[in-house]
Amino acid sequence: MQKAFLSGLMMEQPLLVSEILSHAQRCHASTEIVSRLWSGEIVRTSWGEMAKRSAQLAQALQAEGVDIGSGKRIATLAWNGARHLELYYAVPSMGAVLHTLNPRLFHAQLIYIIQHAEDEIIFVDPHLLPFASALDRALGSVKKWVALCDANELTGILAQFSVQNNALGLSCAALKGLQDYESFIAPFSGEMSWPELPEQMACGLCYTSGTTGDPKGVLYSHRSTVLHALASALPDVKNLSARDAALPVVPMFHVNAWGIPYSAGIVGCKLILPGPRVDGDSLFELLDLEGATLTVGVPTIWMLLLETMRQHGRKPFKLERISVGGAACPPALSDPFIQEFGIEVNHGWGMTETSPVGSLSKPRNTTSTVAASTLHHRHGRPLFGVQMEIVDEQGRALPHDGKATGELLVKGHWVANNYFGAHKENAIPPGEWFHTGDVANIDTEENIQIIDRTKDMIKSGGEWISSIALENAAMEHPEVQEAAAIGLPHPKWGERPLLLVVRRERGGEVDESDQANDVLTQGILAIMAKNVARWWLPNAVIFVQSLPRTATGKLYKITLRDQYRDFIFPPEQLP
Ligand code: ADP
After folding, report:
1. What topology is assigned to 458-563 in CATH?
2. Is pTM beyond 0.90 here?
3. Would residue 459 show up in a list of annotated catalytic residues for this protein?
């Protein structure tokens, strides 16, 4: 029998997404939410207005048969924008589950995911209607599509599609139950009180992007979402406050835009949602115009922004901090933000299964200025609520000395313990660790460093080579825009690295002759040799126009390994 204990005498209230919404409505009603549409037009609303429209949306969904607390999956196929934000709040707050779909996935993957999740209604950006129409026929569970626009825009865009291609226009118009968003919510008052749901109830669903296998659904709870949003806003994480204007470049269709939409509601900061235009010029302009203080996203985005900032010779005028994560960010990319423009760069680690934020690089009171300037070369220390460990192949804990490397394990309040639809027996028992499939070391100050994904490490002569370390080293060469290292079979060593390089564009003719390539290759290898062991150096360097990326902007190494499967290393270049 459980021993009786002295109960605290505090009110009990479940942690719910609706609580964030109600708080933002009460305390930050006039704070702006700015969206840039596909057309480039900038639209302004506020937390107060957004909260009322979220309630209208919940009433509309109820009228459509989505009962309060039903747990039904309501999907979105959309870029970052205010209507998407209304879905972020309305769907969980009414006790349904928001399932964000990634429009950059292949059709077959999306069809698999939508069917697996049994989505009933999908909210779609109007410009993605042709994409939706190609999916619709294969989808049994979907009863209704709602286009995120008003009636005029929908009519206009359907007419535009018909002019381009009559069959396309017709198939878009024939999407099941197609209606525009504004007409969908207009009949409803927005007067409602949100239900008191159990905090363990599911509120969001996001599938891993399938970089390393079939997509798997991670089902977030209200409790995990609220705790993650609270912790992510802390000073040693995003340092988010009501004085900030945050621009999440990271898409709202991937892992809750790293929790920013919910953290922003908690602190009541201005939110700037960039829509589909995330090229360097568009981002610079929006960051500048709207006075963004913080922006977050994957490294590829910062590559584009850095080029634009260099062209302008300045940073967007209020920009103070950039959070980068989701994929390895080479120091050659992050250092210039700090050194040339005085912007703070925080490098974090996370995954879909960790909601996603697990760690972030921030100095401590005792960190010297010199050490602080390179802290972002590692991936930060765990935030409160997350624990991390590294283990060897036998599962034994390794020392936290910054040298020993092993598989990274995590546990915590917002770490998944099973996948949606998986057998209960597969659940991680309470207190046990989630195996990330990443290889890392942890230093004496608990900062982690991701060495590689287990599947991307290169095993040469029985020893491991980090593909990320090779890429970072190659990017130190000024002519290297991007680099990817992959392991390929080798008769003597088992595997050896091949390096694929995208040259930096400088305008004008590029000399791509064999001779010029040889000179550049030698230059790259010489720079790399300063940062990695000689036996790590790639056996061959190939120059390519671009590198394949996954739907979430990570290097797609499976495709690369496939593409270069038959490549034979030139024997004379063996180190
Ligand atoms: P998927 O696993 O489908 O690619 P995720 O977005 O969940 O989708 O990816 C999580 C993975 O991204 C991590 O396991 C890790 O390998 C990688 N990752 C995340 N952040 C970083 C980082 N800062 N540096 C290197 N790799 C990272």
Report:
1. GMP Synthetase; Chain A, domain 3 (3.30.300)
2. yes
3. yes
